[in-house]
């Protein structure tokens, strides 16, 4: 694999991303920083995981308290690569850290995160240790990003988290109908997999239950769009999002949490399609 010097991708890498929906890139990330992420995030996993290391576990937005997570999410080389791929400035808005494979069913991130205009969201998955066939690699379907962005309504499912399992079942049927074939994300420590928002993917089975599979995901929107959550939207009433962009420097101040009644009011206004509630 060709390393991306200062984040600059080759023409072949860019073409491969648009053809296959993902690329694996070596950004020469700081190995010591990756080790620090594993060490510092570990205590934040739920007690259930610490009692049973095979229990599903993740930490969302650890960048708020662990600077190494923030530094990885805002790495300038990754930002340069993303801007080459989608021709807009990338805006990181969420991190997820995992100690083991997710074993998630196949899905598209576009049901969780979408944009107006469409197509301006991407994920970057960084291996914090070597990933092979036995410790729960990613599973993805090359080229599936070229399919339409399927909403829950496209499958005659009412939008909402409570119906997500039904959506997953429909996506699996779609995979079968299209005859799609999966590949596994076998990455070395420090390598990054960049994927298109509409790429169908999930988590493969963890064959060796004694092992970990530490990783960090950063989700990016891109500049100049409106952002919304399709799973909580209808065609005429998008559930708009107003992300807080992960800052490039450690001297940031998080916005104060709004009182519970105000958060509820904003959610109601968004569901009514009243924009500008933030």
UniProtKB/TrEMBL annotation:
Database matches in InterPro entries: Phytyl_CoA_dOase-like
Organism superkingdom: Bacteria
UniProt xrefs under Pfam families: PhyH
Keyword Oxidoreductase in record: yes
One function term, GO molecular function aspect: 2-oxoglutarate-dependent dioxygenase activity
Alphabetized UniProt keyword annotations: Dioxygenase, Oxidoreductase
UniProt cross-references to PANTHER family, sorted A to Z: PHYTANOYL-COA DIOXYGENASE DOMAIN CONTAINING 1, PHYTANOYL-COA HYDROXYLASE
Annotated protein name in UniProt: Phytanoyl-CoA dioxygenase
Species of provenance: SAR86 cluster bacterium
Phylogenetic lineage: Bacteria, Pseudomonadati, Pseudomonadota, Gammaproteobacteria, SAR86 cluster
